[in-house]
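Input.
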Amino acid sequence: MPPLEFRETSKDAQWRLQSRVKGGPFHTSMRRAGFVALAWLLFVPLALSQIPDRANIFAGYSYSDVNSFSWANGNSLHVGGWEGSIEIKAYRWVGFVGDFDRRSGTLCPGPVPSCSPGSVNVTQGDVLFGPRLSLPINRFRPFVHGLAGFQHVTTSYLGPDKSFASALGGGVDVRFARRFSWRFQGDRMQTQLFGTTQKNLRLSTGLVFRF
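Output.
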């Protein structure tokens, strides 16, 4: 069998010749590929910048004024400590929060200033979960939430107690860097410890990292 011969047609020769010169099919294809690559490099960062933050972590200081212990004779307990939370976004304006804190202070259960029979050390800890609604507006992100869980209290007077706890409140995050904000938050908390219902104010502030 004679060997197969491949003959270049005039059309193939013309395309090969045009490909060597500027403006030919080869150069046109390369230009198109370059335009696509450039558009992709410009579009991807822009698209990613439009995706809202998926989560944030908060760490800061927490203060609460407890004024309803039955054995405290009407005296208030001022406790302070740390608070941390993590929020996972389900949608742009809706997230789910896990909130944790621990505060401590000293309460005078008797008449002031004698404080008989002596000062009482009190430690509180909360574990709360619930939904949060937020609306980013430029550098500000106001939010409201409803949280529920439990509170554990330890005292040097009556020992420990625990109760169902709820917190209704909100606050605002003020962004000062690309990934960082400062939070101001207030909650109305309700518990039932030592046979008495407490309705206390919790104030928190601290750093927020968004990612």
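Residues 25-50 form the longest helix (26 residues).
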